[in-house]
Amino acid sequence: MHKAPVDFVVGVDVGATKTLAGVVTMNGEILGRTKTKTPSEQSYRQVLSVIAACIEKAISDSNLPRSRIAAVGIGLAGLLDHETGVVKAEPNLGWESVPVKQALERELKLRVFLENDVNAGTLAEYQLGAGVGVKNLVGVFVGTGIGGGLIFDGRLYHGFGGVAGELGHIIVKTNGPRCGCGNRGCLEALASRTAIVRDLAKAIAKGRKSSLSKLIRNGDLRHIGSNTLATAFRDGDKLTMKIVKRSARYCGIGVASVLNLLNPEMVVLGGGVVEAFGSDYVEMVIKAARKQTFPATFQGIQIVPARLGDDAVLLGAACLARENIERLKG
Amino acid sequence: MHKAPVDFVVGVDVGATKTLAGVVTMNGEILGRTKTKTPSEQSYRQVLSVIAACIEKAISDSNLPRSRIAAVGIGLAGLLDHETGVVKAEPNLGWESVPVKQALERELKLRVFLENDVNAGTLAEYQLGAGVGVKNLVGVFVGTGIGGGLIFDGRLYHGFGGVAGELGHIIVKTNGPRCGCGNRGCLEALASRTAIVRDLAKAIAKGRKSSLSKLIRNGDLRHIGSNTLATAFRDGDKLTMKIVKRSARYCGIGVASVLNLLNPEMVVLGGGVVEAFGSDYVEMVIKAARKQTFPATFQGIQIVPARLGDDAVLLGAACLARENIERLKG
Description:
CATH topology of the largest domain in chain A: Nucleotidyltransferase, domain 5
Oligomer: homodimer
CATH architecture of the largest domain in chain A: 2-Layer Sandwich
Helix content of chain A: 25-40%
Shape of chain A: globular
Largest interface: A-B, 48 and 48 residues
Strand content of chain A: 15-25%
Structural class of chain A: alpha/beta
């Protein structure tokens, strides 16, 4: 059977605060880019109809006939079954056992595929971003939490229960600080933005000086985002620099564990923290990782920043939709 | 082209002290099992001719006509290129850049394939041992050091430079004890027999009571093997029990990191330490791993003892030789 290439698919990034959608061409170009608020406080049916409307708007804004759209790919956080398209648990939206694929296929009359957002972002970097041409790649995304995606032999690796890639929860410091997951010493508890802000708040509470002190209200630094931290870092705030450096060091130690275990060809570093601190952060991660890795394992591998920024999840979801459609056709 | 099954291959386990060889049937039965001392202090040419003689003896003892032997598979420690069959570095034998495949093929007039011993052992457990029927499996071998092998989607995973699986060198305790590799806090530095013996020697030197005290000469416990430790453990020596428990806990933390990252279907625990302490040790590892793993990741997975014991490397090397020959035959 002749395989005609799938020329247009819709990619969607469903986040807790905003949903992005766009029609993606074979070259990874985004047409009819659309952004809308995710009404996370509402019922899942309402959230799904907002997502559907966002998709319809992207298709309509792309000026393509609807018949040219082959499928929709959706990336979203949380635990999901990418085969059935059921979201098992998404804490930010308060979802449990939501049949996203089924519901959206009925509403849109289009094939819908679902993927974890970090997996989607990793696949996008592999197919369209920093990792083009590489065979084995690990994506490391450092933000509020830390997520990972694994590409082995050119394919996204899901593991036995579909939940592989929880890089934020490898243990790098036994008996270390408490993690959001309840355990101690997870990478996420040492290197995420949450960890950086926690350490800053603690140090400031102890009387350490910082340009960020004035932004605290009753010890609460939660409203301090990556950009505020990045400004303090670039302006040379000593406390911020020290704590960010520590985060990068732990991130490098986590990367070293991944390198020693998986010996990938490339590690792509992305997420809000990496974007905010830029090449300074990436360099610190590389330095720490090199120190803890066998020379033979480190040889020839690349540790590079992600290239696709905020578009990664949308693009990766589109790549997956395209792959699935091509597989079904072929 | 018709694929006739490869009925007999030779498997070889080249260790620093002894070399085992045997002709392996399609069912994993070993014929003509042969064991010889590895003359590790001699030149690589002499070691290779001892290995060749060991192989010849196994073939001759199997009473099979030499024409029925399709290939030879060799498992050995150290860094090697399984494609070219060159051993890049084997510290125990003092080898560097030794063309094992080429040299043995010339001597034996048989196809020879090379694999890292831990990878071979993992493959054997997957094809003939604890992991039959499983798709994704991680082998964890705890002995003097700690090694790992990775089976993804039914195939041994080698990584970019062929050195994947260095599970002993994931970092579980940043700033922890110094590892043989030079870094700090590696799993091997916390859970291997080397770590157990180090901690015992240290505690005894500090005056802690133990039934093992009388075996020490000038603080040197190096001659204490896994069986001596196992006897003290089973006899209820409190210090040994405490330190072995700690080793198992760290091993479980390492396994938890692997589970969170890779979500395999099965973890097979093998090696001298696991064999010596048996199901007690395995249970302690499972308990610690469960505590540090997401319930969704732990669900349905199995953590089980290896089944093939000392035959694992020989059998795995034979499996690989068989696979390679079948692939070459097309």
